[in-house]
Design goal:
29% helix, five-stranded mixed beta sheet, single chain, two-stranded antiparallel sheet, 217 residues, alpha/beta, 7 helices
């Protein structure tokens, strides 16, 4: 599978600064209603760590800068990275993606939702497509909340949002991404199981069992 060069592979600037700026945007806006708790989804514990802590660690292994996007009133406690407020009028994750990607200049950016705790840096690193948008589609359903975006892709998403688009799926599909379906995803680290999306207590329990099994292997 084609992969874009890493920051190190793309060389450095004078003074040792890397020419590639890698940014990670962690989406942590879920209120956790379907999980049945009284805390935000990002603070649900999975395998001994919160979903937010897992996502931050995964992104830090891949990107030079990491930030979190969440509604300003959502209580997430102390966060060691910058936090960007999800626009109050934002309907769904498209607004959060646009807010996060627009917060800092970048050459390539990873967007990751906290409710995908089985995705590792190895899995996400394999999705780097350089100029092409590689969009995972587990079960045939495109997943734009765990993908790499270029500045051009961000500009197109921002323009779509400004024009009134609120569906992240429609906005990303308009970028003509290359879909990675089950056969391709099964070959990546973690396989298809890595794409488990945690929204319910049963899914959280399943994620914990899968994490325990992988750590025992």
């Amino acid at each position: 599978m084609a992969r874009g060069p890493t920051a190190q592979e793309r060389g450095g600037q004078a003074g040792g600064l890397l020419s590639a700026r890698t940014l990670a945007v962690v989406l942590a806006g879920g209120r956790g209603t379907r999980l049945g708790g009284e805390m935000p989804k990002a603070l649900a514990v999975c395998g001994g760590r919160t979903l937010l802590a897992r996502a931050l660690a995964t992104c830090a292994a891949l990107c030079e800068r990491v930030l979190v996007v969440a509604p300003g009133e959502l209580a997430l406690g102390e966060i060691a990275v910058p936090r960007i407020a999800d626009p109050q009028e934002g309907a769904g994750p498209l607004a959060a993606i646009v807010a996060g990607l627009g917060a800092e200049a970048f050459d390539e950016a990873l967007v990751l939702a906290v409710d995908l705790p089985l995705l590792t840096s190895a899995t996400l690193g394999a999705l780097r497509g350089g100029a092409s948008l590689l969009l995972p589609a587990p079960g045939g359903i495109p997943q734009p909340l765990a993908a790499w975006y270029t500045p051009d892709a961000f500009a197109a998403l921002a323009a779509a949002y400004a024009a009134g688009e609120r569906s992240v799926s429609r906005a990303v599909n308009a970028l003509a991404p290359t879909l990675l379906r089950d056969a391709e995803l099964a070959k990546l680290p973690g396989g298809l199981a890595a794409w488990l999306n945690v929204n319910t207590p049963d899914e959280l329990a399943l994620a914990e069992r899968l994490l325990a099994a992988s750590e025992a292997a």
